[in-house]
Design a protein that fits this description.
Chain lengths: ~550, ~550
């Protein structure tokens, strides 16, 4: 018995394109001898389709595409994820998160997802009605249990026991020989290892092999890492498909496992690969072929440029270095050195003249008022304006380069350095920015060492350094993790030994800058809690804790 | 039997402040002879708290505040909305959307919300576990059924039968003499009338009086209009509390109704009142006391200024008129005429010098390339930059002035005229902008008639008019309503008699500009489907329909 795992990269709402991707992978698996082929959750739709499902023709067109796919399938069955209607007379949500078993030209079986995640980045109860129970499918002499993503995430791997049922237990009680799972499980650091442990545990408990087919590719803020898995009935990981790339593989899940498949790459390598995939998919799925960005000579823009050059090719990355009177010559030199190392284009565009003109324009209103953060923001906004004009003129997508630490405390200028269509490293804390940059330089200097080694500065006033305003990044990032990711209160964080004034300053800055993040570009999520669709804070609120 | 209805305006997460607001209204009702006082849904918390509930100390502090409130209450009971924990060992979501019956210094009863809306702007299944059944409370010789918001929205008033149970039927079967409902029901045009019909229907079906206490005030994008209601057992509306303001009233629900309470104001008046309340609450709850905005001489900025002057007082509104070489003198004159009519400050700041400096800065990169939309956007972005510098220097909140029609088709410049902390009229289609503006001028000219009567123009190139680019607003707004609010496909809209090329152009523009709206300022929702938290479209997607 050979199963083909088609780890494909669907585009949301692209039914004809996704059908083609599915068929190509299906045929590849057939050639490699598959007896059955599995694709990811909502493989025909792309995950997550979000409110597109409410468009009057979305689900009808999905079902048309499913019929077309079914017509292409003969003896070897194909498992496809799609969206179905709930019965119009049945109370509940209008749709089902569904899987179809296609063979001999028709839909032989339909399976509904039972456990619908409605937390973090997931909104499935907004759209879907849960299935109540699924029946094993007998095929080729074995009984196959089919589940969709969350259905196999047992409560040991969730934040709390969310559900009052366990679809794997139900299937086991009915008797199965093999468990299949169609998934769209987004990446964050630690998730691939967690999945190995979880899938192994499910296999051990159900005493059957498990085949876990995950989607790959990025859709908006979510990066799906692939890393599809096969576990034997003892919970040993027989096979792990590649991370962050389209792949297919045909395996026999009943073969005994001698040695487990090797596990994942290092943290910085995973982060880097996730961001490269995220940039490539965001830019190309949006129909752009090139990007521009501002190069400040600092580490954030350097890392962003390196990721973009890898994702799109250096010929498709255009840098601007925009020195102000407060910029050091070193910053411009570092930008050119970076551009040379990466092979990307870089142009110097000084902002002094524009800065003087803007100041002169506002002078009548500012008479007698000292220069302050207003003039710092002016510089950042002039740079944003210049970059957007380059983006407009030459049809580049502008990448914004801020990291998670500064976005958290609002150490960034809205409509200034926050300008851009995609916030590439906005979920990387500053310490991780250094870690990934050093990893990039592991063999040779790509990001100039001077950029990595010098003290970080926004260069918006003479001799400015980040640490004039911010706590040291080692401290800042630790407190931010406790406050933002763990959602602890200031008091709880202080009780862990952090300085009270620092903690309260950070807490206040995070809360006060919610409005700024509301208008931030979408970012690629790589930690368990990004500023993005998985974190929904009110702007107008007075809770302090 | 006299019931006090406390239609209060809570601030999200402000437990001490909300407790004070509740107690003040409670005492006011006591003085007016109330035997029992009801407050809105989550009255102690503010609606919606969103992900604040996940903060480790949020619910504990809410429960502390509830205990404090209970301690203040003697014989006359108080009904308060709050968030409770779900039992830690019970599967499901961690929290309950709850109501507490406080009397004699303690919490006498706790009621869980049964039907949890998870559609449109609502995310309650993300946080709350539904209650299963609630018992009537016997008090003062009568049996009272207590429900929370959605619990009484029968399927006739929902998009489809979402729920497989009916809490009012359950309570009726157990026997009740009076039905109470704590609500946080946000405004959109048509909602107040819908509620009257719905509450009347509930009363008729259950054959008991209904008291419906709604919250008032704005939290982020949602404006709550109050309009609390009392229906007699025949479904006649005995009392309607004022719209868009804090109010309390003591009524006897068992008195026979002679004539029904008058219904709502006209559409433009409701829209105007909703936006005034929305601006006032957003600005003041955020801790600002003044706003600034750009005055273009056009109708959008004029209406926004008029709303702001009413909401905050004209002395707290500062206008900038920023003519370019393409601005007509009439536009500047209209801005000054508006400022004079409203009593707000207005300063003229020409952008020519800054525009020339920016063009000169980019000239080396733009050699040989013709002027295009890039230079139009430059002007809008220079204005955004100047307004933000005024906002920074003098601590005004910047209001952005775009309407829904232009936001829909992306006829606006990101980081330009889209700059600002609040998008006041971003849910008003252009035709409604005219309607509300004419209503404002019903007694005397406030918005200059010239502003209302002249053809709309962005004035970003010589002799530009909106209708050079856009279909006539009468057509555009009708098609947008069908596409965005009704979610119909292009084909369905065309089949209703609209021109194919116009429909497809609009559909494409709406879809392509999702990325721009992702970075838009929060807007005040006044229609059934705003661009905002109730509409969650992917940016990267290829569905056409």
């Amino acid at each position: 018995m050979k199963i083909g795992i088609a780890q494909i990269n669907p585009v949301v709402g692209d039914f004809p394109g996704n059908a083609k991707r599915i068929l190509a992978a299906y045929r590849e698996c057939l050639e490699a001898g598959a007896d059955l082929v599995i694709t990811p959750e909502l493989s025909l739709v792309g995950y997550p389709p979000r409110d597109l499902v409410f468009k009057s023709q979305f689900v009808p067109k999905c079902l048309q595409a499913l019929d077309y796919l079914a017509g292409e399938i003969r003896e070897i069955p194909l498992l496809v994820g799609y969206v179905d209607h709930n019965h119009p007379a049945r109370p509940g949500k209008p749709f089902r998160n569904a899987a179809a078993w296609l063979s001999h030209g028709v839909i032989q079986h339909r399976i509904w997802k039972t456990l619908l995640p409605t937390y973090d980045v997931f909104d499935e109860r907004r759209y879907f009605e849960p299935g109540e129970s699924s029946e094993p499918i007998t095929w080729g002499g074995i009984r196959i249990g089919i589940t969709i993503c969350e259905d196999i995430w047992t409560e040991d791997y969730l934040q709390r026991p969310f559900y009052d049922r366990d679809p794997v237990d139900d299937l086991s009680a009915k008797g199965i020989d093999l468990l299949l799972n169609l998934s769209a499980s987004p990446f964050h650091l630690g998730k691939p290892l967690l999945r190995r442990a979880m899938i192994g545990g499910v296999a051990r408990k159900a005493k059957v092999p498990v085949i876990y087919c995950n989607t790959v590719g990025a859709n908006d803020q979510l990066v799906f890492d692939g890393h599809s898995l096969v576990a034997d009935a003892n919970g040993r990981i027989a096979t792990q498909l590649p991370g962050f790339e389209v792949a297919s593989k045909v395996i026999d899940p009943f073969l005994p496992v001698e040695t487990e498949a090797p596990s994942n790459d290092s943290d910085p390598e995973q982060l880097y690969c996730a961001l490269v995939l995220g940039v490539r998919d965001y830019v190309t799925k949006c129909g752009f072929s090139s990007v521009c960005l501002g190069l400040s000579g600092g580490i954030d823009s350097a890392l962003t440029a390196a990721i973009a050059a890898d994702a799109l090719g250096p010929e498709n990355v255009v840098g601007l270095t925009m020195p102000s009177p407060y910029s050091s010559r070193g910053s411009v030199d570092d930008s050119f050195a970076l551009a040379k190392n990466l092979g990307i284009q870089c142009t110097e565009v000084p902002i002094l003249e524009a800065f003087e003109a803007i100041k002169a324009t506002m002078q009548p209103l500012f008479v007698g008022k000292p220069e302050d953060v207003t003039e710092e923001n002016m510089q950042a906004r002039i740079r944003g304006l210049l970059l957007m004009s380059l983006s407009n003129k030459d049809n580049h997508l502008l990448l914004t380069t801020g990291n998670k630490s500064e976005l958290a405390v609002g150490y960034c200028t809205i409509y200034g350095d926050m300008c851009g269509g995609l916030a590439v490293i906005s979920d990387l804390p500053k310490i991780r920015v250094y870690e990934v940059s050093r990893w990039i330089n592991r063999d040779r200097e790509i990001i100039p060492w001077d950029t990595i080694d010098k003290p970080p500065s926004a260069e918006l006033r003479p001799d400015q350094k980040d640490q004039d305003t911010l706590p040291p990044y080692e401290i800042l990032d630790k407190i931010l993790e406790l406050y933002v990711e763990c959602q602890l209160s200031s008091d709880e964080i202080i009780s862990r030994g952090f300085e009270e004034s620092t903690v309260r300053w950070i807490q206040r800055r995070v809360d006060l800058n919610e409005w700024k993040r509301h208008q931030a570009a979408p970012g690629l999520r790589v930690t368990s809690k990004a500023f993005g669709i998985g974190r929904r804070m009110p702007i107008v609120q007075k809770f302090i804790g």
